[in-house]
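Lecture notes, continued. The same structure-token format from the folding unit now serves as the input rather than the output. Read the line below as a description of shape only.
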């Protein structure tokens, strides 16, 4: 009766069931909801739902953070293409100390076309002593491991891991050779420093350092064989524009011998290389009327300076070395043979656009949520099926939860304890 009174009271005040539900405005808004929600009466709460939610949020944040970090650091790409540009000549940058006086040495370059360049005229030769360069003699033998090179002075900075930004930073350093230390008063020179840049034809060639009277310029006075000593320290050997801070395979290498007749041979495969952080601007660079910027400083000056800020034009090379004593019928010395590859390697560091980053973040987060939802549904279904299987295998129970006892019907179905 009380309930009927309450209902009658609702009607007397002009109220009904709709007044205690959602408002009409809210119902109108829900009618236009693109993602309609399930009513709470049809949902079932679980103890593991919160754990799954926290786990999915943590995974989404972690994956989104990795995407942001990858976008911030950029992506390095390596592409090969046919080198464009005229490129008639090639600049060679050379800095070496040989343990023989300069008057005992001949330096020459001969290319595959037969042209011969007396490099001694293009390069500067300074008499010095081997002891004066001891601070630079902490070089490594060619083929030394990365750990052995890093143990040297300045090794970690020169031989550590480098990216495109490191090459761009190194290219902005000094662009001249170190000065040769003056000879101490009254000390005779026992070594020769050969340094400078020279231009040769951009074809295969050979760079020779021999004793006078042997090899090229055999018309020179004959040098006694016991004065031969081709122990040397290569401080710089690069091709193209001169960047002293860029590390090349033969930079800071030391080779020594105890034999007067000893032949050092280096075989180089040179590949024009470009490091850039603005690949789009590099694609607009025209080579039709200009020399290739990788050929040398002259070719680099022919192009707009705006490319020099974000791009480094240089040449990389791989080197193989052979060293062995020779007999007196052979020519001892230092022989560097180089071959120019017709391809160009472009190493570009690029960043995705902000819309692309947003799309990747949405894909990652939505993928985690969808996959997590499926996994949660499957685990809940598996738990339900497992619980249902347990209920089916359990024997039926009594009213108060005790297992029913089997009855004995041998006496006509009467229970003696019950008195039937």
């Amino acid at each position: 009766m009380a309930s009927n009174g309450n209902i009658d009271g609702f009607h007397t005040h002009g109220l009904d069931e709709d007044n205690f539900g959602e408002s009409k405005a809210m119902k109108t808004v829900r009618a236009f909801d693109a993602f309609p929600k399930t009513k709470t009466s049809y949902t079932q709460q679980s103890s593991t739902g919160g754990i799954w939610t926290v786990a999915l949020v943590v995974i989404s944040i972690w994956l989104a953070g990795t995407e942001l970090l990858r976008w911030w650091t950029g992506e390095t790409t390596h592409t090969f293409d046919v080198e464009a540009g005229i490129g008639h000549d090639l600049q060679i940058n050379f800095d070496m100390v040989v343990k023989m006086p300069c008057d005992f040495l001949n330096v020459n370059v001969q290319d595959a076309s037969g042209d011969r360049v007396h490099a001694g005229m293009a390069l500067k030769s300074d008499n010095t002593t081997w002891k004066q360069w001891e601070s630079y003699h902490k070089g490594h033998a060619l083929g030394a491991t990365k750990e052995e090179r890093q143990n040297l002075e300045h090794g970690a900075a020169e031989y550590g891991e480098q990216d495109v930004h490191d090459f761009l930073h190194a290219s902005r350093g000094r662009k001249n050779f170190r000065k040769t230390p003056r000879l101490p008063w009254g000390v005779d020179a026992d070594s020769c420093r050969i340094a400078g840049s020279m231009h040769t034809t951009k074809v295969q060639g050979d760079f020779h350092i021999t004793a006078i009277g042997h090899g090229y310029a055999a018309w020179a006075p004959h040098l006694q064989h016991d004065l031969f000593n081709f122990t040397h320290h290569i401080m710089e050997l690069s091709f193209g524009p001169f960047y002293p801070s860029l590390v090349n395979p033969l930079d800071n290498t030391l080779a020594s011998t105890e034999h007067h007749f000893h032949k050092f041979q280096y075989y180089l495969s040179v590949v024009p290389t470009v490091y850039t952080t603005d690949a789009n601007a590099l694609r607009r660079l025209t080579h039709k009327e200009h020399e290739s910027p990788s050929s040398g400083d002259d070719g680099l000056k022919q192009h707009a300076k705006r490319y020099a800020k974000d791009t480094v034009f240089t040449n990389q090379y791989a080197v193989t070395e052979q060293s062995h004593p020779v007999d007196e019928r052979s020519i001892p010395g230092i022989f560097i043979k180089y071959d120019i590859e017709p391809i160009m390697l472009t190493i570009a560091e690029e960043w995705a656009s902000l819309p692309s980053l947003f799309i990747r973040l949405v894909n990652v987060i939505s993928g985690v949520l969808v996959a997590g939802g499926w996994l949660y549904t499957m685990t809940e279904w598996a738990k339900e099926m497992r619980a249902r299987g347990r209920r089916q295998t359990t024997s039926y129970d009594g009213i108060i939860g005790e297992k029913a006892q089997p009855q004995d019907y041998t006496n006509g179905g009467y229970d003696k304890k019950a008195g039937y």
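Point for the exam: The CA atoms of residues 58 and 390 lie 35 Å apart.
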